[in-house]
Amino acid sequence: MFRRSFVALAFAALLTAPAAAPGQVTIRVASYNTANDVSGNTKTLSFYDGSAGGSAGSAANTTYFDISTATVANVLTQIDTYSGGTGSSVVGGKVQLNASSAAALTIGGSGLAKLGLTAGTTAASTPAGAGLTGQILTVGSTGGGVATNITFGTGAGQISTLTDLNTALAANNLQASINTTGQIALTTTNDAASQNIGLIGGSATNAGNLFAGASGSVATADPGSQTTRANLVAQYNQVIDNIKNTAQDSSFNGVNLLNGDSLSLTFNETGKSKLKISGVNFDPAGLGLSTLVSGTDFIDNASTNKVLTSLTNASTALRSQSSALGSNLSIVQIRQDFSKNLINVLQTGSSNLTLADTNEEAANSQALSTRQSIAVSALALANQSQQSVLQLLR
Protein backbone atom coordinates (compact mmCIF):
# COMPACT_ATOMS: atom_id res chain seq x y z
CA MET A 1 0.00 0.00 0.00
CA PHE A 2 1.22 3.54 -0.77
CA ARG A 3 0.54 7.05 0.36
CA ARG A 4 -0.81 9.42 -2.24
CA SER A 5 0.90 12.78 -2.76
CA PHE A 6 -1.38 15.75 -3.19
CA VAL A 7 -1.27 19.48 -3.85
CA ALA A 8 -3.97 21.78 -2.49
CA LEU A 9 -4.60 24.52 -5.05
CA ALA A 10 -6.33 27.57 -3.68
CA PHE A 11 -8.65 28.75 -6.42
CA ALA A 12 -12.41 28.87 -6.49
CA ALA A 13 -13.23 29.80 -10.09
CA LEU A 14 -11.11 27.65 -12.38
CA LEU A 15 -13.78 27.62 -15.06
CA THR A 16 -15.18 31.10 -14.50
CA ALA A 17 -12.01 33.04 -15.44
CA PRO A 18 -12.29 35.99 -17.86
CA ALA A 19 -12.49 35.12 -21.54
CA ALA A 20 -9.11 34.13 -22.94
CA ALA A 21 -7.67 33.14 -26.25
CA PRO A 22 -6.30 29.62 -26.73
CA GLY A 23 -3.05 29.10 -24.89
CA GLN A 24 -3.36 32.31 -22.90
CA VAL A 25 -4.34 30.46 -19.69
CA THR A 26 -2.66 27.08 -19.33
CA ILE A 27 -1.82 24.50 -16.72
CA ARG A 28 1.05 22.16 -17.36
CA VAL A 29 1.32 18.83 -15.55
CA ALA A 30 4.41 16.64 -15.56
CA SER A 31 3.11 13.39 -17.02
CA TYR A 32 3.41 10.14 -15.13
CA ASN A 33 4.91 7.25 -17.09
CA THR A 34 1.76 5.32 -17.77
CA ALA A 35 0.09 3.83 -20.79
CA ASN A 36 -1.24 7.33 -21.45
CA ASP A 37 2.23 8.66 -22.17
CA VAL A 38 5.14 6.28 -21.78
CA SER A 39 7.62 9.04 -22.59
CA GLY A 40 6.60 11.17 -19.64
CA ASN A 41 6.15 14.34 -21.70
CA THR A 42 4.73 17.41 -20.02
CA LYS A 43 1.05 17.81 -20.72
CA THR A 44 -0.77 21.10 -21.14
CA LEU A 45 -4.36 22.00 -20.29
CA SER A 46 -5.40 25.07 -22.32
CA PHE A 47 -8.62 27.03 -21.77
CA TYR A 48 -10.63 29.18 -24.18
CA ASP A 49 -14.02 30.83 -24.20
CA GLY A 50 -16.11 29.47 -27.05
CA SER A 51 -18.97 31.83 -26.26
CA ALA A 52 -16.63 34.79 -27.00
CA GLY A 53 -15.37 33.40 -30.29
CA GLY A 54 -12.43 31.42 -28.95
CA SER A 55 -11.58 28.02 -30.35
CA ALA A 56 -9.41 25.03 -29.55
CA GLY A 57 -5.87 24.82 -30.87
CA SER A 58 -3.93 21.82 -32.11
CA ALA A 59 -0.71 21.85 -30.09
CA ALA A 60 0.81 18.49 -29.26
CA ASN A 61 0.31 17.04 -25.75
CA THR A 62 -2.39 19.66 -25.09
CA THR A 63 -6.03 19.27 -24.08
CA TYR A 64 -8.30 22.22 -24.80
CA PHE A 65 -11.28 23.16 -22.63
CA ASP A 66 -14.10 25.55 -23.52
CA ILE A 67 -14.74 27.34 -20.23
CA SER A 68 -18.31 28.12 -21.33
CA THR A 69 -19.25 24.42 -21.35
CA ALA A 70 -16.59 22.47 -19.44
CA THR A 71 -16.88 21.55 -15.75
CA VAL A 72 -14.36 21.34 -12.95
CA ALA A 73 -14.85 17.57 -12.96
CA ASN A 74 -13.78 17.45 -16.64
CA VAL A 75 -10.54 19.28 -15.86
CA LEU A 76 -9.72 17.22 -12.75
CA THR A 77 -10.34 13.97 -14.60
CA GLN A 78 -7.88 15.03 -17.33
CA ILE A 79 -5.28 16.02 -14.73
CA ASP A 80 -5.64 12.57 -13.12
CA THR A 81 -5.18 10.98 -16.54
CA TYR A 82 -1.96 12.91 -17.14
CA SER A 83 -0.51 12.52 -13.66
CA GLY A 84 -1.48 8.90 -13.06
CA GLY A 85 -3.45 9.96 -10.02
CA THR A 86 -7.04 9.27 -8.97
CA GLY A 87 -9.75 11.10 -7.11
CA SER A 88 -8.71 14.73 -7.58
CA SER A 89 -11.56 16.85 -6.26
CA VAL A 90 -12.63 20.14 -4.70
CA VAL A 91 -12.25 20.02 -0.91
CA GLY A 92 -13.22 23.00 1.24
CA GLY A 93 -13.18 25.39 -1.72
CA LYS A 94 -9.74 24.19 -2.81
CA VAL A 95 -8.79 21.88 -5.62
CA GLN A 96 -6.85 18.87 -4.36
CA LEU A 97 -4.84 17.06 -7.03
CA ASN A 98 -3.88 13.49 -6.19
CA ALA A 99 -0.89 12.39 -8.21
CA SER A 100 0.45 8.86 -8.56
CA SER A 101 2.20 7.61 -5.48
CA ALA A 102 5.27 6.78 -7.57
CA ALA A 103 5.93 10.19 -9.08
CA ALA A 104 6.06 13.88 -8.25
CA LEU A 105 3.37 16.27 -9.47
CA THR A 106 4.55 19.49 -11.11
CA ILE A 107 2.16 22.31 -12.01
CA GLY A 108 3.01 25.51 -13.91
CA GLY A 109 2.01 27.59 -16.89
CA SER A 110 1.62 31.12 -18.16
CA GLY A 111 -1.87 31.64 -16.82
CA LEU A 112 -1.59 30.42 -13.22
CA ALA A 113 -1.71 33.93 -11.79
CA LYS A 114 -5.04 34.63 -13.51
CA LEU A 115 -6.45 31.51 -11.92
CA GLY A 116 -5.05 32.32 -8.49
CA LEU A 117 -2.66 29.35 -8.62
CA THR A 118 0.95 29.02 -7.63
CA ALA A 119 3.41 26.90 -9.53
CA GLY A 120 4.93 24.09 -7.52
CA THR A 121 6.15 20.51 -7.36
CA THR A 122 5.36 17.88 -4.78
CA ALA A 123 7.98 15.46 -3.64
CA ALA A 124 7.66 11.95 -4.96
CA SER A 125 5.87 9.70 -2.50
CA THR A 126 7.68 6.80 -0.98
CA PRO A 127 5.93 3.48 -0.55
CA ALA A 128 4.49 2.95 2.88
CA GLY A 129 4.93 -0.27 4.75
CA ALA A 130 2.97 -3.29 3.69
CA GLY A 131 0.46 -2.40 6.40
CA LEU A 132 -1.96 -5.18 7.24
CA THR A 133 -1.82 -6.98 3.91
CA GLY A 134 -1.18 -10.67 4.56
CA GLN A 135 -1.16 -10.21 8.33
CA ILE A 136 -3.16 -12.51 10.62
CA LEU A 137 -5.03 -11.29 13.69
CA THR A 138 -6.49 -13.64 16.28
CA VAL A 139 -8.72 -12.67 19.19
CA GLY A 140 -9.67 -15.19 21.85
CA SER A 141 -13.28 -15.83 22.82
CA THR A 142 -14.87 -12.72 24.33
CA GLY A 143 -17.94 -13.06 26.49
CA GLY A 144 -18.59 -16.60 25.26
CA GLY A 145 -18.28 -15.58 21.60
CA VAL A 146 -16.55 -17.43 18.78
CA ALA A 147 -12.78 -16.84 18.72
CA THR A 148 -11.71 -14.63 15.79
CA ASN A 149 -9.06 -15.64 13.25
CA ILE A 150 -8.82 -13.28 10.29
CA THR A 151 -6.34 -12.51 7.50
CA PHE A 152 -6.06 -8.98 6.09
CA GLY A 153 -5.92 -8.48 2.34
CA THR A 154 -8.05 -8.28 -0.78
CA GLY A 155 -8.09 -11.99 -1.61
CA ALA A 156 -11.01 -14.35 -1.22
CA GLY A 157 -12.03 -14.67 2.41
CA GLN A 158 -9.67 -11.88 3.50
CA ILE A 159 -10.51 -8.62 5.27
CA SER A 160 -9.95 -5.32 3.46
CA THR A 161 -12.65 -2.95 4.78
CA LEU A 162 -13.98 -1.87 8.15
CA THR A 163 -17.34 -3.43 7.28
CA ASP A 164 -15.66 -6.78 6.57
CA LEU A 165 -13.73 -6.53 9.84
CA ASN A 166 -16.89 -5.86 11.87
CA THR A 167 -18.64 -8.76 10.16
CA ALA A 168 -15.81 -11.08 11.19
CA LEU A 169 -15.77 -9.75 14.77
CA ALA A 170 -19.54 -9.84 15.34
CA ALA A 171 -19.63 -13.52 16.35
CA ASN A 172 -17.02 -12.76 19.03
CA ASN A 173 -19.04 -9.92 20.62
CA LEU A 174 -16.59 -7.32 19.26
CA GLN A 175 -16.77 -4.30 17.00
CA ALA A 176 -14.08 -2.21 15.32
CA SER A 177 -13.82 1.52 14.67
CA ILE A 178 -11.20 3.89 13.26
CA ASN A 179 -10.42 7.05 15.20
CA THR A 180 -9.30 10.41 13.83
CA THR A 181 -5.63 9.38 13.90
CA GLY A 182 -6.28 6.30 11.77
CA GLN A 183 -5.95 3.80 14.61
CA ILE A 184 -8.15 0.71 14.64
CA ALA A 185 -9.87 0.20 18.01
CA LEU A 186 -11.61 -3.02 19.09
CA THR A 187 -14.34 -2.78 21.71
CA THR A 188 -16.86 -5.21 23.14
CA THR A 189 -20.48 -4.95 22.03
CA ASN A 190 -23.32 -4.17 24.45
CA ASP A 191 -24.03 -7.89 24.77
CA ALA A 192 -20.63 -8.42 26.40
CA ALA A 193 -19.99 -4.95 27.79
CA SER A 194 -18.76 -6.32 31.13
CA GLN A 195 -16.34 -8.83 29.57
CA ASN A 196 -12.64 -8.40 28.86
CA ILE A 197 -11.41 -8.82 25.29
CA GLY A 198 -9.86 -12.24 24.65
CA LEU A 199 -6.15 -12.75 24.11
CA ILE A 200 -4.92 -10.92 20.99
CA GLY A 201 -2.33 -12.67 18.84
CA GLY A 202 -1.24 -13.50 15.31
CA SER A 203 1.43 -12.07 13.02
CA ALA A 204 -0.23 -8.64 13.10
CA THR A 205 0.95 -8.30 16.72
CA ASN A 206 4.60 -8.98 15.95
CA ALA A 207 7.17 -6.21 16.50
CA GLY A 208 6.89 -3.49 13.88
CA ASN A 209 3.37 -4.46 12.79
CA LEU A 210 0.24 -2.41 13.33
CA PHE A 211 -1.11 -4.47 16.27
CA ALA A 212 2.27 -4.89 17.95
CA GLY A 213 1.84 -5.20 21.72
CA ALA A 214 -1.92 -4.75 21.49
CA SER A 215 -3.96 -6.05 24.42
CA GLY A 216 -7.45 -5.46 25.74
CA SER A 217 -8.06 -3.20 28.69
CA VAL A 218 -10.06 -4.29 31.72
CA ALA A 219 -13.79 -3.60 31.36
CA THR A 220 -14.84 -0.54 33.37
CA ALA A 221 -18.35 -0.13 34.73
CA ASP A 222 -20.30 3.03 33.97
CA PRO A 223 -21.63 4.30 37.32
CA GLY A 224 -24.78 5.88 35.90
CA SER A 225 -25.94 2.86 33.92
CA GLN A 226 -25.05 0.45 36.71
CA THR A 227 -27.15 2.48 39.17
CA THR A 228 -30.11 2.15 36.81
CA ARG A 229 -29.51 -1.58 36.45
CA ALA A 230 -29.23 -1.96 40.23
CA ASN A 231 -32.69 -0.38 40.57
CA LEU A 232 -34.02 -2.86 38.03
CA VAL A 233 -32.53 -5.71 40.07
CA ALA A 234 -34.37 -4.45 43.16
CA GLN A 235 -37.67 -4.28 41.26
CA TYR A 236 -37.16 -7.77 39.87
CA ASN A 237 -36.50 -9.19 43.35
CA GLN A 238 -39.76 -7.61 44.59
CA VAL A 239 -41.66 -9.41 41.86
CA ILE A 240 -39.96 -12.69 42.81
CA ASP A 241 -41.11 -12.22 46.43
CA ASN A 242 -44.68 -11.58 45.23
CA ILE A 243 -44.63 -14.78 43.18
CA LYS A 244 -43.51 -16.71 46.26
CA ASN A 245 -46.25 -15.23 48.47
CA THR A 246 -48.94 -15.82 45.85
CA ALA A 247 -47.96 -19.48 45.45
CA GLN A 248 -48.07 -20.01 49.23
CA ASP A 249 -51.49 -18.35 49.59
CA SER A 250 -53.18 -20.29 46.76
CA SER A 251 -54.81 -22.92 48.97
CA PHE A 252 -58.48 -23.92 49.43
CA ASN A 253 -59.79 -26.29 52.08
CA GLY A 254 -56.23 -27.15 52.98
CA VAL A 255 -55.21 -28.09 49.41
CA ASN A 256 -52.66 -25.99 47.50
CA LEU A 257 -52.15 -27.21 43.95
CA LEU A 258 -49.33 -24.64 43.46
CA ASN A 259 -47.41 -25.99 46.44
CA GLY A 260 -47.15 -29.62 45.40
CA ASP A 261 -50.47 -30.87 46.92
CA SER A 262 -52.75 -33.26 45.01
CA LEU A 263 -56.54 -33.31 44.85
CA SER A 264 -58.66 -36.49 44.44
CA LEU A 265 -62.28 -36.15 43.32
CA THR A 266 -64.93 -38.95 43.49
CA PHE A 267 -67.90 -38.67 41.15
CA ASN A 268 -70.19 -41.56 42.23
CA GLU A 269 -71.29 -43.40 45.37
CA THR A 270 -69.25 -46.51 44.57
CA GLY A 271 -66.01 -44.58 44.31
CA LYS A 272 -65.17 -46.09 40.93
CA SER A 273 -65.37 -42.80 39.00
CA LYS A 274 -62.48 -40.61 40.15
CA LEU A 275 -60.21 -37.80 39.01
CA LYS A 276 -56.82 -37.13 40.55
CA ILE A 277 -55.28 -33.70 39.99
CA SER A 278 -51.54 -33.53 40.67
CA GLY A 279 -50.20 -30.25 41.99
CA VAL A 280 -46.93 -28.52 41.09
CA ASN A 281 -44.33 -26.50 42.93
CA PHE A 282 -44.72 -23.11 41.31
CA ASP A 283 -42.84 -20.99 43.76
CA PRO A 284 -39.86 -19.05 42.23
CA ALA A 285 -37.53 -22.03 42.68
CA GLY A 286 -40.01 -24.35 40.96
CA LEU A 287 -40.24 -21.92 38.05
CA GLY A 288 -36.47 -21.73 37.71
CA LEU A 289 -36.32 -18.16 38.98
CA SER A 290 -34.08 -16.77 41.67
CA THR A 291 -33.31 -13.42 43.22
CA LEU A 292 -30.65 -11.36 41.45
CA VAL A 293 -27.51 -9.77 42.84
CA SER A 294 -26.74 -6.14 42.11
CA GLY A 295 -23.38 -5.75 40.38
CA THR A 296 -23.50 -9.31 39.06
CA ASP A 297 -26.82 -9.54 37.22
CA PHE A 298 -28.20 -7.09 34.67
CA ILE A 299 -24.72 -5.64 34.16
CA ASP A 300 -24.79 -6.11 30.38
CA ASN A 301 -27.03 -7.48 27.67
CA ALA A 302 -25.67 -11.01 27.97
CA SER A 303 -26.50 -11.33 31.69
CA THR A 304 -29.87 -9.67 31.08
CA ASN A 305 -30.67 -12.11 28.27
CA LYS A 306 -30.03 -15.04 30.64
CA VAL A 307 -32.71 -13.69 33.00
CA LEU A 308 -35.07 -13.13 30.07
CA THR A 309 -34.55 -16.74 29.00
CA SER A 310 -35.46 -17.93 32.52
CA LEU A 311 -38.59 -15.75 32.48
CA THR A 312 -39.59 -17.11 29.08
CA ASN A 313 -39.21 -20.71 30.34
CA ALA A 314 -41.22 -19.89 33.46
CA SER A 315 -43.97 -18.31 31.36
CA THR A 316 -44.08 -21.40 29.15
CA ALA A 317 -44.38 -23.66 32.20
CA LEU A 318 -47.22 -21.53 33.61
CA ARG A 319 -49.12 -21.66 30.34
CA SER A 320 -48.71 -25.43 30.14
CA GLN A 321 -49.92 -25.96 33.71
CA SER A 322 -52.78 -23.52 33.18
CA SER A 323 -53.90 -25.61 30.22
CA ALA A 324 -53.73 -28.82 32.29
CA LEU A 325 -55.73 -27.31 35.17
CA GLY A 326 -58.23 -25.87 32.70
CA SER A 327 -58.77 -29.34 31.21
CA ASN A 328 -59.35 -30.83 34.67
CA LEU A 329 -61.75 -27.99 35.50
CA SER A 330 -63.77 -28.79 32.38
CA ILE A 331 -64.06 -32.43 33.46
CA VAL A 332 -65.22 -31.43 36.94
CA GLN A 333 -67.77 -28.97 35.55
CA ILE A 334 -69.18 -31.58 33.15
CA ARG A 335 -69.55 -34.12 35.97
CA GLN A 336 -71.07 -31.45 38.19
CA ASP A 337 -73.65 -30.57 35.54
CA PHE A 338 -74.40 -34.27 35.03
CA SER A 339 -74.90 -34.84 38.78
CA LYS A 340 -77.19 -31.82 39.04
CA ASN A 341 -79.34 -33.05 36.16
CA LEU A 342 -79.47 -36.55 37.67
CA ILE A 343 -80.56 -35.16 41.03
CA ASN A 344 -83.32 -33.18 39.36
CA VAL A 345 -84.58 -36.27 37.53
CA LEU A 346 -84.64 -38.35 40.73
CA GLN A 347 -86.35 -35.64 42.72
CA THR A 348 -89.03 -35.27 40.03
CA GLY A 349 -89.65 -39.03 40.02
CA SER A 350 -89.84 -39.16 43.82
CA SER A 351 -92.26 -36.29 43.85
CA ASN A 352 -94.42 -37.99 41.28
CA LEU A 353 -94.52 -41.10 43.48
CA THR A 354 -95.16 -39.49 46.86
CA LEU A 355 -96.90 -36.18 46.31
CA ALA A 356 -100.68 -35.88 45.44
CA ASP A 357 -102.73 -33.21 43.73
CA THR A 358 -105.00 -31.85 46.52
CA ASN A 359 -107.71 -30.66 44.10
CA GLU A 360 -107.85 -34.03 42.38
CA GLU A 361 -107.90 -35.96 45.62
CA ALA A 362 -110.61 -33.65 47.07
CA ALA A 363 -112.76 -34.28 44.01
CA ASN A 364 -112.14 -38.04 44.34
CA SER A 365 -113.12 -37.90 48.05
CA GLN A 366 -116.29 -35.98 47.27
CA ALA A 367 -117.20 -38.41 44.53
CA LEU A 368 -116.63 -41.34 46.88
CA SER A 369 -118.79 -39.71 49.58
CA THR A 370 -121.55 -39.14 47.07
CA ARG A 371 -121.45 -42.75 45.91
CA GLN A 372 -121.61 -43.98 49.49
CA SER A 373 -124.64 -41.75 50.24
CA ILE A 374 -126.41 -42.97 47.11
CA ALA A 375 -125.68 -46.58 48.09
CA VAL A 376 -127.14 -46.07 51.59
CA SER A 377 -130.21 -44.43 50.15
CA ALA A 378 -130.62 -47.27 47.68
CA LEU A 379 -130.39 -49.85 50.47
CA ALA A 380 -132.90 -47.92 52.52
CA LEU A 381 -135.36 -47.84 49.64
CA ALA A 382 -134.83 -51.50 48.98
CA ASN A 383 -135.60 -52.34 52.63
CA GLN A 384 -138.74 -50.21 52.51
CA SER A 385 -139.98 -52.09 49.42
CA GLN A 386 -139.41 -55.45 51.11
CA GLN A 387 -141.31 -54.28 54.19
CA SER A 388 -144.27 -53.23 52.04
CA VAL A 389 -144.45 -56.67 50.42
CA LEU A 390 -144.38 -58.36 53.84
CA GLN A 391 -147.27 -56.19 54.97
CA LEU A 392 -149.33 -57.41 52.06
CA LEU A 393 -148.68 -61.01 53.01
CA ARG A 394 -149.91 -60.57 56.55
* Individual helix count: 5
Low-confidence stretches: 1-25, 31-36
Instruction: Give a count of the beta strands, DSSP E runs of length 2 or more.
Output: 15
The neighbouring-strand order within the major sheet is: 4-3-2-7-8
What Rg, in angstroms, do the CA atoms define? 52 Å
Query: What pattern of helices and strands is seen along the backbone?
Result: EEEEHEEEEEEHEEEHEEHH
Give the distance, in angstroms, between the N- and C-terminal Cα atoms: 171 Å
The biggest sheet, with number of strands, parallel, antiparallel or mixed sense and barrel status, is:
5 strands, mixed
What portion of residues is helical? 25-40%
Estimate what percentage of residues fall within beta strands: 15-25%
The coarse silhouette is elongated
